[in-house]
Each structure stands twice: as C-alpha cells, then as structure tokens.
C-alpha cells in the first residue's frame, strides 16, 4: 500500500496509541451522487464499516453533512455516531445537541427566500428547492451545463434583490445545487471543532465546496484531510480519485483495525433522544 494512503495513515496513528476521530461528509463521500437526494442510500457494507470503527475503544465516527440532521441521521442509521446537519449548524453527539442561533434566524426569512426563488425555479423546469433547518439547497442537477449557468445567475439575482430587507446571505455552489444560509452561520468547520475530541488524530473526508471549512479546521489540528474527486477543496492533504476509491479505503481501514468481525455485525439498537445543551454565540 502506498505511504500516502489515508487509511494506512489513520490505522498507523491508532496503532501508535492515539484516539481516532473519523469525520465524513455524506453525499459524494459515503454514498455515490444520485439523481435525487432520496436515492443516495448508504450501502449496508459501508454502514458495517462505520459501525465497526465506531465500536473501537479509542475511536469515534461522525457524519458531517449539508443535509438536515434528521435526514443524515436516518440515512446512516447508527445511533452511536456523532452527526452534524445543515452544513454544521445542527450538531448531535450522544444525548447532546448544539444549534447555531442563525438556524432560527434563517428560518424566519425562509418563506421570503422561497418566494423570491419561485420565479427562476418556474422558468427552469427540473430545478427545485430543498428546505432544511437553517438553510436551503436550490437543486439544478437535471439541467444541461449552459442552462445550469443561466439558472444560477437568475437564482443569485433573485436572492440579491432581497438584500435591502434581508440579512446578508452566504450563497455557494455545492454539487449541482446552490446552498443558501445566513452569512456567518456555522459551517462544517464549527462542527469539526465540536466533534473532534481532545488529542485525537482527526480524519476528515469530503468532496465539495461546503467541506472547505472542515478541511481548514482539521488541517489546523494537524489532522488528515482527504479530498474525494475533482471538486474537493484545494487545501486537502491527500486525495482519492472518486467515491469508490474512498469507500475502498474505508473498508481497508475497518478490516485493518476491526478484522473480519465488521461484516454482518448487528447494528447497535436503541434510540437516543437528544437534548439541547448549548446555543453558541454568533
Ligand atoms: O455535505 P453533503 O453531505 O455532501 O451534502 C451536500 C448536499 O447533498 C445532497 O444533495 C447532493 O446530493 C444529491 C444525492 O446524491 C444530489 O441529487 C444533489 O444534486 C446534490 O446536490 C442534499 O440534498 C443537500 O441537502 C446537501 O446539502
């Protein structure tokens, strides 16, 4: 195995005695990109690998996603993991939650944003808006590249027209969707800071523009950042060509640290009912 392989490096750190925190993006990293969000289902073998790694005595596993917290938690289906949804604004670890106050501020203006976006969405059939706590994804995957460029321009203009009556927005293109949140809202970097754990070797893997802050946060901790595919943030320390290669590394890591026991193991049952313990300052 080459020395720059992320799974080999993570296994070596764990074997050397360091706690290991593995944080992964969901869409495009743990699952292949699909035509619609509902079709991006986690393969059972990937779930087994995550469950096996999370059961190790000095390891924690988290999924940090642009999806809503409920959606990512349900799709992954492992109560023992750490989760962040809404691009880092809504964080869940064990029985505890942290919520960015910007989430509620955004929700108070979300209807106005949806109204503003209704005109470009009507003009470009195939586009649609996914409403999530604290943010929106304006999807345009079904459009050809020139139509997508036209749609993005119109959607950005529609949002910009709200400017005098609306707090500043953060609008960025993430895997064929415009992600819209309040400027200054928590990002995946904030989620990394809350989920990483003290003294752990932190590994983060992601594939898109909304992973930039997580990559910066993990690099700042001296951790291991893995870019999945060509659109991964430029600052990653290691790269894999695509989602298949990333999952192959995940299986190698699980096999190396957990042995054959990870395949077909029953998943931990039980439902954790989270309670809110912290609403951070903006
Ligand atoms: O941060 P992530 O976990 O990567 O989530 C980013 C967005 O993922 C979803 O949309 C993207 O994946 C869909 C399924 O593969 C695809 O159909 C869509 O075109 C992509 O934009 C999700 O729907 C969004 O809420 C997430 O922000």
TrEMBL record:
InterPro entries hit by this protein: HAD-like_sf, HAD-SF_hydro_IIB, HAD_sf, OTSB-like, Trehalose_PPase
Listed EC numbers: 3.1.3.12
Cofactor: Mg(2+)
UniProt KW Magnesium keyword: yes
Pathway in which the depicted protein is active: Glycan biosynthesis; trehalose biosynthesis
TM annotation in the entry: none
MF-aspect GO terms: metal ion binding; trehalose-phosphatase activity
Enzyme class per UniProt: hydrolase
Family stated for the protein in its record: Belongs to the trehalose phosphatase family.
Function: Removes the phosphate from trehalose 6-phosphate to produce free trehalose.
Protein name: Trehalose 6-phosphate phosphatase
């Amino acid at each position: 195995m080459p020395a720059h392989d992320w799974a080999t490096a993570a296994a070596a750190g764990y074997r050397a005695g360091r706690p290991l925190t593995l944080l992964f993006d969901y869409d495009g990293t743990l699952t292949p990109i699909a035509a619609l969000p509902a079709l991006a289902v986690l393969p059972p073998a990937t779930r087994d690998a995550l469950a096996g790694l999370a059961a190790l005595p000095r390891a924690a596993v988290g999924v940090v996603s642009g999806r809503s917290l409920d959606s990512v938690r349900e799709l992954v289906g492992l109560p023992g993991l750490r989760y962040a949804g809404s691009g880092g604004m809504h964080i869940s670890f064990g029985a505890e939650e942290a919520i960015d106050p910007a989430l509620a501020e955004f929700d108070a203006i979300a209807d106005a944003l949806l109204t503003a976006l209704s005109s470009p969405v009507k003009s470009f059939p195939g586009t649609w808006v996914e409403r999530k706590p604290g943010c929106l994804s304006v999807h345009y995957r079904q459009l050809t590249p020139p139509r997508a460029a036209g749609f993005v321009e119109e959607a950005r203009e529609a949002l910009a027209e709200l400017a005098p009556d609306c707090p500043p927005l953060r609008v960025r293109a993430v895997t064929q969707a415009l992600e819209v949140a309040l400027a200054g809202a928590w990002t995946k970097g904030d989620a990394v800071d809350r989920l990483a754990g003290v003294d752990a070797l932190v590994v983060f893997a992601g594939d898109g523009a909304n992973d930039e802050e997580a990559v910066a946060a993990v690099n700042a901790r001296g951790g291991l950042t893995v870019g999945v595919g060509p659109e991964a943030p430029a600052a990653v320390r290691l790269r894999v060509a695509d989602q298949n290669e990333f999952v192959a590394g995940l299986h190698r890591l699980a096999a190396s640290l957990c042995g054959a026991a990870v395949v077909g193991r029953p998943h931990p049952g039980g439902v954790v009912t989270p309670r809110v313990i912290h609403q951070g300052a903006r």
